[in-house]
Amino acid sequence: MGQAYGFFEIPSVTAALVAIDIMCKTAEVELVTWEKKLGGRLVTVIIRGDVSAVTQAIEAAVAGGIKEPAAYVVIASPHEEIIKMVNKSANRVS
């Protein structure tokens, strides 16, 4: 069975770091990458793990974060093209 991916967009780098901390402490998930947009005023965080862990992590970050997320979603079994896009993004982000 493939892994699920969680996408979480939130305003501010600080809020993103808090959300990542919550997600990684809540469930067995791996941070794939994060991308800062608009000078860090919007940050996209991508995690992966099994469906229940990713769902639990995303829900915990929504409930316990310091800012309300702009958007979030869990994709249970992403198409291979989505995985390619995520991998390309992760490889170019330092």
Concise synopsis of the structure shown:
By secondary structure, the protein is of the alpha+beta class. The chain has 3 helices and 4 strands.
Describe the structure.
The chain has 94 residues and is an alpha+beta fold. The chain is 44% helix and 30% strand. The chain is built from three helices and four strands, in the order E-H-E-E-H-E-H. The longest helix is centred in the N-terminal third of the chain and has 14 residues, at 13-26.
List keywords for this structure.
alpha+beta; 4 strands; 94 residues; 4-stranded antiparallel sheet
Summarize the helices and strands and which ones pair or pack.
Layout: E1 4-10, H1 13-26, E2 30-37, E3 42-49, H2 51-64, E4 71-75, H3 80-92
Antiparallel strand pairs: 1-3, 1-4, 2-3
